[in-house]
Amino acid sequence: MTTDFLAPATSVRAQPRLRLRSNEVADGARLRTAQRSAILGGGGLDVSPSLEWSGAPLGTLSYAVTAHDLNGRCYWAVADISGGVTSLVVDAGNGSGERLPSVARQLRNDLGYARYVGPAPAALGLPGRFIFAVHAVDVGRLPLRTHAGPCELTAALDGHEVGRATLTAAYGWSPPS
């Protein structure tokens, strides 16, 4: 008879905590102009920020990156980033794909673009929150169709996400007088 289930918790190997950082986005700070939307008229440039993560949980074979607002609208989605990659460079989400790591797939966002689109607050200048997330995944390639979007990514991550880290930035602008 084994009594392994009675072993003290200290014998369980501690999992590292997935962490996310960026040179362009500080958690809780205001989103820079370059990361806000030009396409949606937010006075920005639609340049995705650099992202760097560490502390991959055991079993991580790949990563996905998303950017969304508090309403759940997805502005950027990248899947199948190799498990050995721990960063994305500035403007990796430009739509051409040449700045993404090999094998990574940029998916259509909720606006229909296969690229990063920054947020644009309502014309009233109301502030909002924008969340960048890195998802640690326990498979090397998620089961996604060629033209998948954020809903398919969310469904594919279900049961395969082994960790997540986020950065949340504020955005808003005042309309011209």
From TrEMBL:
InterPro entries: PEBP, PEBP-like_sf, YbhB_YbcL/LppC-like
Family: Belongs to the UPF0098 family.
Signal peptide: none
Record's protein name: PBP family phospholipid-binding protein
SUPFAM superfamilies in UniProt: PEBP-like (SSF49777)
Pfam families, sorted: PBP (PF01161)
Transmembrane segments: none
